[in-house]
Amino acid sequence: GAGVSQSPRYKVAKRGQDVALRCDPISGHVSLFWYQQALGQGPEFLTYFQNEAQLDKSGLPSDRFFAERPEGSVSTLKIQRTQQEDSAVYLCASSLGGRHEQYFGPGTRLTVT
Amino acid sequence: GESVGLHLPTLSVQEGDNSIINCAYSNSASDYFIWYKQESGKGPQFIIDIRSNMDKRQGQRVTVLLNKTVKHLSLQIAATQPGDSAVYFCAENGGATNKLIFGTGTLLAVQP
Questions:
Q1: How far apart are CA B26 and CA B97, in angstroms?
Q2: Would you tell me which residues 89-108 of chain B have a C-beta closer than 8 angstroms to some C-beta of chain A?
Q3: Which of B5, B32, B103 sits opposite A99 (nearest CB)?
Q4: Confidence (pLDDT) at A1
Q5: CB A25 within 8 A of CB A94
Q6: DSSP states of B54-109 as a string?
Q7: Rounded distance, CA B82 to CA B16, Å?
Q8: Does B5 contact A45 at a Cβ distance shorter than 8 Å?
Q9: I need a surface site. Which of A63, B21, B22, B68 has the fewest CB within 10 A?
Q10: What distance lies between CA B34 and its chain's CA centroid?
């Protein structure tokens, strides 16, 4: 498809488990963003890549969160030792870069039990 | 699926009426603003954007107004349809960054 895709769409993890969330951006989009959305709230910025370079990770809530985009295309958000407060929808967005609109994927709903 | 509209401000309109959704943004250095529509279980969908050198921009059935003096953004939807029912978020770029800062969202409920 032509849009941003994310997998898995739903993930249930036991507290303490590690999870990996995948994002496939729109082909040709140099910028890739990860956001976290709690129920009933707006998305909150986590981290930003331009090609393979992680230019801003100021929104990552703890050192348990790690993101990578090694070849400047697909990105993975990894959460180690998941906690209940990590339960949220994780959204990926891509854009042409700069002040261009960001296109969002459907999100991965993470539930930590 | 779960609603993203829990505990959000709600605007209820009749089908065919015009809707106006308001947003106050926080950072006077922001120079790029976007409106998104989010339906339950889906990611935000781009509606329209505006840069700070403009005060109005029109799209298909939608108009965005920007008032930088009072840091206010509005989205006008003409002839609202049931398919417009969703949560609407405004977002700003916070100045010299590419990340978006989202507002709290407004649930638009269109009554047939």
A1: 14
A2: 89, 91, 93, 97-105
A3: B32
A4: 54
A5: yes
A6: -SEEE-SSEEEEEETTTTEEEEEESS--GGG-EEEEEEE--SS-S--EE---EEEE
A7: 9
A8: no
A9: A63
A10: 7
